[in-house]
Amino acid sequence: MGRFLGDQASTVLFYESGTYGNKSGPQWPGLVTENEITENVNVSSLRYAGTLNRNVDQYIDGPLDFTGRLVCHPQNFRWFVFAMGSVVDAGSPSPYTHVISELNNGSSSQFISGTKNPFTSFQIEDAQKAPGTGVNFVRTVQGAVANVTRLSAGEGELANLEIEYVAQNVLFTSGALTAATEDTTRPFQWRDFLVHIPSGTVFTEIKDVSLEINNNFEAPHYLNGSRVIDAPIALNRDYTLSLTLHGTSERTKTLYDQYFLGGSTFNAMLAVSASTGSREGFFVMSGCKLVEMSAPTRAEGVQEQSVTIRPQTMVLNVNDTVFKYGF
Fold first, then answer.
1. Contact assessment for residue 163 and residue 151, using Cβ atoms and an 8 Å cutoff
2. Which helix (H) or strand (E) holds 58?
3. Is the pTM of this model over 0.70?
């Protein structure tokens, strides 16, 4: 018997290309610290009259539902292609540029096609390895889409990226693991993050930041003879920028009087730069509305404030050494 230990685990990312559910070559997903696949087989316990006993009469296999949550320390911005849907790669030689933008339902994914107009999708190979041949526990999540993507950073810490995904199927094997070329660049840290409100005005008193993209996918189980979902449907998209900061007379007046109570809309930008010009991303947000602000008064310490901002639109401009985020 071989034990599955964490140092032998691996997680590999695959784009899907051509058609929904068809994977391409392996990609390094970032410094993954956790990948949890939730598999629900929806078994129903059926009881009915006439069996003359107290036991379950039949177990009925229901629809198959697969979701998951991957957490990593990001080294680039590749995951946002799946969160937003579209990318244009350019530049040669390095640094290369990537413009990641919103994919709406009126446009098709540049990677996959089909009558169901599928959103940009991916696969994850989640592998637990033990000594020996044919004894591994390898699951490949197929037809996955990024439902909620959340980038966060707190003072003194590594940045975190969480992807909550919806998938069509999970394939099991006990065979060999897929290898992906490791990215050895350092992950993004708190010191790489700057928040501009509006664009061009840097707020330097921020303690933590979180940017969330929610695609609100619907996972349909059609009457089509299959237990798995059809291609997920992207519904309304929601952006949320959450900040915690130390209160100052200058910043608080702008946030509270002009944007919160005053109701003015504004532009904002989250800049993440590990190396100027060669490893950086700029989340440019337009039509921003400050919808929540908390500013409790405390008897000790620096006064802290929390704000929630809802952008209407966003585009991500990236400069880095990755040749292509697409194909």
1. no
2. strand 58-61
3. yes
